[in-house]
Amino acid sequence: MRVREPKTVLEVEDLHYEYLPGKAAIDSISFKIGEGELVSIVGPSGCGKTTLMKSVAGLLRPTSGTVRMHGVAVSQVPDDLAMVFQEYERSLYPWLTVAENVKLPLRYVKVDKGQRARRVERALAEVGLSRDHAKYPWQLSGGMQQRVAIARALAYRPSLLLMDEPFASVDAQTRAELEDLVAAVQRNHGVTIMLITHDIDEAVYLGDRVIVLTGSPSRTMREIDVDLPSERDQIETKASREFVALRSEVAHLIRRATRGTTETVEPPPEGAAAPEPTAKPRQERILP
Ligand SMILES: Nc1ncnc2c1ncn2[C@@H]1O[C@H](COP(=O)(O)OP(=O)(O)OP(=O)(O)O)[C@@H](O)[C@H]1O
């Protein structure tokens, strides 16, 4: 179990957003993310996850409510924020090498040339791309390009890393590898991460907490603590009874949200029996 009393990095309080007057995309979302935490955000399709992300990134100004980083209201893109998106092809500059892509945002960081080079080198080593530093993005696979995007965020050392469906465009094997890379990066560097994902397994596997949103216009439906050991394993963890119970709880909430429930669901009282898992761990078929 992870025992922490982290400093609050991000606080979203009663966030309400309307693209058009009177037509809310987000009704009321509130949550906090502490230093070094990874919080997964899930909800039905179209519930407002990207709108939430843009509001946190300072790209949209809340219609009402507040987004604060380190206690200060966000009114533009914060300097100490990094983002990793689903579309890796669009997030890297094709005319720059891998190392140059990773180095680019360091222009805005007050460190000398030598330190910059060392940060790039370390970040590339961390994501296993040291030997590919001189290649161009188009010479890499999708998973490798996403590693470059993660290295760039790591080198920048942001206070908060926003990840919006970062692994949605890669194959299942690569997705599992990238999930483990993010878990390792978070463990080793204490990076604070807000992860938006459609994948319930991923939300639970990577999260310290999972926040479930209702359907549109979204509200915070429920916050679930993920009480799994911090060292996680794609096969062992996902087969564990605790994981299956959590996954099933999140899946039930999303199903309710998709069917139109918009009220906040209180967690079961302290000491109440955990819900029985309704989904069994996936059985692997071993072919002869
Ligand atoms: N620029 C816009 N103008 C008007 N309405 C918008 C705009 N962008 C999003 N919306 C609406 O706001 C609501 C939330 O959209 P948003 O993209 O934030 O949801 P999402 O949860 O990220 O979607 P998905 O699950 O498909 O990724 C939707 O009803 C959408 O149609």
From TrEMBL:
Basic and acidic residues composition bias: residue spans: 279-288
Region (Disordered): 255-288
Stretches with biased composition (Low complexity): 261-277
Keywords, comma-separated and alphabetical: ATP-binding, Nucleotide-binding, Transport
InterPro entries in UniProt: AAA+_ATPase (IPR003593), ABC_transporter-like_ATP-bd (IPR003439), ABC_transporter-like_CS (IPR017871), ABC_transporter_ATP-bind (IPR050166), P-loop_NTPase (IPR027417)
GO molecular function, one term: ATP binding
Domain ABC transporter: 10-240
The name this protein goes by in its record: ABC transporter ATP-binding protein
Organism annotation: Streptomyces albipurpureus
